Each structure stands twice: as structure tokens, then as C-alpha cells.
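Ticket #4471: structure export looks truncated?
Reporter: QA, pipeline team
Priority: medium

Steps to reproduce: submit the single chain below to the structure queue and open the exported record.
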Amino acid sequence: MHEIASTVRLQHVYVKASSNPFDDRNEVDTATTALAPSLDSKACSYEARAHTFSVRSTTSTVQYSHEPYSSFQHKAAQLSVELFPGCSTKDITIERMKGGSFNRIVGITLYKPEQELPWYDMAKLRPIMAACVRGKKAHGTTPKQYILRIPRHDVHDLHYQAVLLAYLEHKIPYATPKCLSYSSGADNALGRAYMLQKRLPGKPLSQIWAKLTPEQRQSAARCIAEAVRDLHKVKSTCAGVVSLRSTVSDMENDSVKLEPVTMPRRTASVVADDLFKTTLASPQSTRDFLLSLIARQQTSAEEAGIPAFDKIWSGLTAMINTVHSQGLLPDGDPFVLYHPDFQRQNLLFTTPNPSRVLLSGIIDWDGALFAPKFMSTRSPFFLWTDECADKEAEGDALIEPSDPELRAYKRTFEDVVGQDFCKDAYCPQYIFLRRIWRFLVNGIRNEIDLFLAEEVLDEWEEKYPTFTVEDDE
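Actual output as written to the record:
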């Protein structure tokens, strides 16, 4: 059997292959056939955009035991030659870029090789004639920019990421990364799994915020509020991740297939024979979904032979049931597309003029899924809190800033999203549920998780007395 990432052509999001790597006309085929096996040894292909920025990283070699960049860059250059037939290493520039906790990032700039054409060929004459008509010098070929994302650890969800990115292209009105090609195996010049994407324009808000004018910051606050509002509109009756069994027709007709949240995390790549055996998610209430996560975590802990922490799970169950009894988890609520890391560093902006900015891309969708509605109403309180504030400390969202400028950003958010959204964003019970989400999805696997779970339950007990948390022996 072969891995999907190297042997299954995703027919429903199949990209028409072009022999010219510079041809931007590749389009997603609208065929609605499901996944079908292919004996192609190359990685599955999609069209893509990229997402990152050019900041030096000096810690990944030590922190993640990675191969030094001095040698790794040559492998990246060789892989680029394989990915872009007709190019050589002299046509390619490799750039070290700042990565994140889950991916190492390498930038690729591709310069189009000179074509050997006769002087009278229209491909040569057209730019010269156009320059003469306009009275301006003919411009040279614009280089193409890409990135390689190399997973630091788990590579078993690359195929899910690729399908999710294809879905986002159809579903949301914002530029997102799109996958050109990927491989979850080591049969390539890198000797590692990778994903190739085009590079999106703009820079992360975290890089440019300090340099923006007050008018530009206000513009950025409005752009972010609009994005939060718009993502909240993408809904489903089911919770889970976008399934590999989803077709382009599903994506276009708002009937995308979902699979249940993976638990525990995947430890082996999905293979072609397993594809149609994957379970699809079914409609359910938010309360039932949350309680099912707890039950699955308890079963997972038992199978893994780790402490069950039954009192913690009982406390979380009581919390969910209490919120449901308060009418805050209506049984008919839909599930909403949730970006788990909607932060400054993942929001790309361009600055067309001194009074305005444009949101040019939303990146880092690893782990995105359809989650309970209250998850997507988390406010972007990084706009009106101290830059050094803990991004997990959502209680800061409720604090009214003393600084008039910060207050203006908060008012902008509230005006854009509306009163009902703000009610959910600032609801204390929902903030508690957002704090326990990490345990419901990832479990309690170490002492830090246990400490944080007990801390949440202790705070909940003080505010809504329902039970007592006791230490597990």
C-alpha cells in the first residue's frame, strides 16, 4: 500500500498540470469524482498560495534538533529543481525564513529562464512594442515567490491540510494559503515531508503594527473585525475536520463532508485502502459533541495506560451541563469554522497609503475545523491589550482600555460584529468553555495540563458553585 500523499491523485480538487511552472493559469478542476488511486510516484498536486514572512530564525537547529541551514538550503534548492522542471539552481534563490512551532519555513524565489526564441518571435517583440507605445522601459520578468513548509514533527495530516486549503479557497472571501504540491514521505531531495505553497503578499501585523499610523491601525482593526465576522458565517450541522472524501461539488454547494475530530492524534498516514473507511461526522447538538469529546478522551487515556483524571473530567462534564441548563448551548446551534491561531502573526497586511491598510491574507490554518459556535466568537482582544499580554488570557477582552486609541479599536470591533456577537464574545461562561477546549481536543497528558485544568475548574467553582475538585491520587 502507498500513502495517499504520494500515490493518490485527489481528483475532486485535481490541478491541471502545466508543463510551464510559471503558468499561473492552472485551475482547480471542477470534476466531482472522489479520490481515486494513482500509481504516480510524485506528491499530490494542488494550486497554492503561501503565507510567511522573511525573518531570520536562529533557534530551530538547536530547539528542534534540525539539520543546520547551511546544508539544508542546498537540499531545498535541489528539491526546487525537481518541483520546477526546466529550471536549474542558478534560476533559484533560497531564503531562510522564520518558522513556527509546527513548521520549518524556507522561501523560494524563482526566476524564469531565458527562452531561446528568434528575434522576430512575438513573445520577444510584444514587450518591446508595448514599451515603445507607452514610452516606458520594458520591465523584466517578475520573479515568482514560493515557500516550503517542512513539518517539525507529525506529518500525518498533510493531506487533510491540503484539502482544507482547497475548501477555504471556495468558502471564504480572503486570500489563504493554497497548496501547490506536497509529500508526506522522505523520497525527495529534502529527505523529509514538505508542502509547497505560493507566497502571499504583505507582512504579518505583528511586524508592522509599531510602524503604522493611527489611521492605518484603525483600518487594520476594522479589517480584522470584518474577518472575524465573516469567518463566523461559515457553518455546518456537524463538527469536525474537512474530509478527504469531500469533492469540489461539495465545496461549491456548501455540503462539504466532515470527519470527527481525530483522537488521539494520527500516528500513521492514511492509505488508499483506508480512505473510504473513514467515518463521517453526523449532525449533533453542541452539548452532545462536547460530552462525546470527554468520553473519547477518557477511553483514549485508558487505552494509552495514562492516568484517567476522572475527577477532572467529571468537573468539565458538570461545567458543560451547567452552561447547557442556563440555555447557553441551544441544541439547534450550528458548528462554525474555527481558526485556532487567529493572531497578529498570522494576519498579513499591505499598506497602500498612509491612512489605509489591506488584509492580504490569513495564514497558518493548521488544526482548523468546525467547532462549537462559541469558539469562533473569541474576540481579537490583542487589538486593545498590551502587546506583551498573554494571548490565552481572554479575561483581558473584558477590560475597558484606559488608552483612548485602544478603546477606539475595541469600539471598532464591536460596531462591525454587532451586539449579538459581542454578547457571545464577552460571555463569561463561553470564555470558560473556550479555556477548556484544549483539554477536550488534546486531553490531559502531563502535569502542566493537569494544573491548568484544575485552575480553570477552581475558578469556575468560585463563580458557579456546583462541585468540588479533588486531587487525583
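Status: closed, not a bug. The export was complete when the record was re-opened. Leaving a note from the reviewer for reference: Residues 135 and 320 are 70 Å apart (CA to CA).
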